[in-house]
Amino acid sequence: MPRPELLEQIYTIVDQIPVGRVTTYGRIAAMTEGATPRMVGSAMRHLPDGHQLPWHRVIAASLKLADHGGAARQHQKLRDEGVVFDAKGRVPKHLVWPD
Fold first, then answer.
1. Which numeric CATH code is attached to 4-95?
2. Would you list the domain boundaries of the chain?
3. Residue 30 Cα distances to 9, 33, 41, angstroms
4. What's the rounded Cα separation, in Å, for the pair 7 and 74?
5. N or C: which end of the chain has fewer CB within 10 A?
6. What is the dihedral of CA 39, 40, 43, 44, to 10 degrees?
7. Closest CA to 96 of 46, 40, 26
8. Alpha-helical runs (H) found in 16-96
9. What does the pLDDT look like over 27-74, one tens digit per residue?
10. What separation in angstroms does the CA of 24 have from each of 35, 50, 58, 86?
11. Based on the number of CB atoms within 10 Å of its own CB, is 14 exposed (0-12), middle (13-18) or buried (19 or more)?
């Protein structure tokens, strides 16, 4: 798990991802003071109970959903927000935040 100060940075960034947009583990890591994409993934897997963070808006650099137990739920939540997927299951680049 990332250090508490990095967790706070990661969670603050995730909370800013707009509805209908996505970002990658790597982009979030680059906005912090030392987190790696793997640390961001760990932070997403260990979210605190009762959180309201839009975890579903964080995806892999391939612009596909990571293969995990919540992938079907993540896909549905994104579709509910208007996110579209191409035939290969990728999110279009124009939906990646920040621009």
1. 1.10.10.10
2. 4-95
3. 11, 8, 13
4. 21
5. C
6. -140
7. 26
8. 25-30, 37-45, 71-80
9. 999 999 999 999 999 999 999 899 999 999 999 999 999 888 899 999
10. 13, 23, 5, 17
11. buried
Q: What is residue 63's predicted lDDT score, i.e. its pLDDT?
A: 98
Q: Is residue 80 helix, strand or coil?
A: helix
Tokens of 78: 């994104």
d(CA 36, CA 10): 10
Which among 4, 8, 50 has a CA at the least distance from the CA of 31? 8
The per-residue pLDDT for range 2-34, each reduced to its tens digit, is 899 999 999 999 999 999 999 999 999 999 999
- Closest alpha carbon to 66 in 47, 48, 40: 40
